[in-house]
Amino acid sequence: MVDAARQMLDELMGRNRNLHPSEAPKTVNWDDPEYCQYYIVKFCPHDLFVNTRADLGACYRIHDDEAKKKYEEAKPSHRKRQFEDEFLQFCNSMLNDVDRKIQKGKQRLKLMQKDQPSGLSHTSKYQEQLNNLNARIKKLLAEAEEAGIRGDVDQAQDLMNLCEQLKDERDAMVAQHEQMITTTKETIISEKLAIKAPSSTTGNSSETIGGNGGGGGGDKSPASDAENSSSAADKKVNAWMQDMGHVPEKQMEVCEVCGAFLIVGDAQQRIEDHLTGKQHLGFTKLRKAVEEIHERRKKEREDDERRKRDDRSSHHRSNYHSGYDPERRRERDHHERSREHNSGHYHQSEKHRHHHKSHHRRRSHSRSRSHRSSHERRESRSRSRSRY
User: Fold this and answer.
1) Ranges of Low complexity compositional bias (predicted)?
2) Considering the entire predicted model, what is its pTM?
C-alpha cells in the first residue's frame, strides 16, 4: 500500500519532490531495478486485467515515462535484449495459460454436445446458417475497414452496403425462426386446453351420475382420464421443446482470444460488450505485442543477412576490378613455391657435385705428392749408393 502511494506521488509530483533545492536531482537510468521493465519495453501486464478474473494485482515497481523514453532512445545492447526476453517470457506464460483454458473449454463443449439429444436437426441447421451469416458479416466489416485505411472509399462503401444486406437477411431469418416457435407453441397450448375442457365436463357429469345412483365405483375413471390427457399434452409440449432445442442449453462457443464462453448467435450488443471488455482487450494486446516483437526481430535478422551478403559481394567485386583473383593468386603462389623448391634442390645437387669434385681433386693431388716424394726418396738413395 505504501509503495503504491509512493508510486502515485512520483507520477504526480515527480521523483525529486522531497529533494532540497540545494541538492542535485537524481539522474534517470532505465536500467535501475526500481523501474518496471515490462512497462519500459511495451506495457505492464498488471494494468490490463484490473477487476477481472485474470487480475494480476498491482505492480510493485515504478512506471516512469522518462525511463521508458531513455530506453527507446538507447542503442541496441545485450541488456535491452534481456529486457525484451523477460517481457516475452512473461507474456508467453500468460498466453500459454489462456490457450490451455481454450482447449479445455472446447473439450468441455464437445462433451456437452455428446450428451445432448439427437432431435436438434432443425435448431442445428438454423444455428449453422446464423453462424455463417455472422462470419460473412464480420469478414465484410474487416475488408471494409482495410479498404478505408487504404483510401478506397468506393470499395468500402460497397462492402458496407453488402454488409447491411446480410444483416437484414440475418434479422429476417431470426424473426422467422422466432415466429415459427411462437406459432407452434400457441398451437400446442391451444390443443392442450381443448383436451382439458372435455375431460372436465365428463368428470362433472360422471360425478352427478354417481351421486344420484349412490354408487362409488364409477367416479374415478373420468378424473384419471383427465390426468392422462393432461400428462399426454405435457409430454407433447416437452417433445416439441426438445425438437426445437429449448430443453438443452443454448449452443456455446469458446473465444479464441481470451477463452470466454459465448452464446452462438447472441445479440450484437452482448458480442460487442465482450469484444470491448478488459479481459478480451488485454489478451489481444498481449498477442499483438508478442507478434510485433517477433516480426521486428525477424526483420532485423533478414537485414543482417542481407547486409552480410552485400558486403561479401562488394568485396568480391572490388577484388575483381582491382585485378585480384584468389584462384590466380593461389596458382601463382603454388608455382613460386614449386620453383623455389626446384631451385633449392638444384643448388643442393650442384653443391654436392662441387664437393665431390673438390674431394676427388684433393685425393688425386695427395696421391701425386706421395708418389713424387717416394720417387725422390728412391733417387736420393740410389745417388747415395753410387757415391760409395
Assistant:
1) 199-209, 221-232
2) 0.49
